[in-house]
Design goal:
By secondary structure, this protein is an all-alpha fold. It is 84% helix and 0% strand. It starts with a helix and ends in a 5-residue tail after the last helix.
Amino acid sequence: MKFLEIKESQESLEAKKAKLSKLEKSLDTMESALSRAREATRLIKYDNTASEITVSLMGIADDVGIEEKELDYYADKVREATNNLESKVYEMEEVFEDRVRDLKNAVDDLQYEIDYPEDY
């Protein structure tokens, strides 16, 4: 190899290492964001607003002589919608998971390029 080729190769390696460092920092940031996103979405599990409203309505119905079974259909619909809402909130994590996966792949690919330059 000529001196100029060696110098260019070394500069290219340094540039790849700098890029790898930036990617690893981005990955750390995104993993932290994923963790925070999971903490935020976990809150939906403890939201019992719909249940409290349903219980309240059942109590009001009982107070005025409406049988509970008349509200059962609607209560089932509310439970179904609540479960669906919870699922959709958890699905929002996928945006962060996808970014983490993409960054991990980019880090792995670049690290491989640095470790095995003869393959490129």
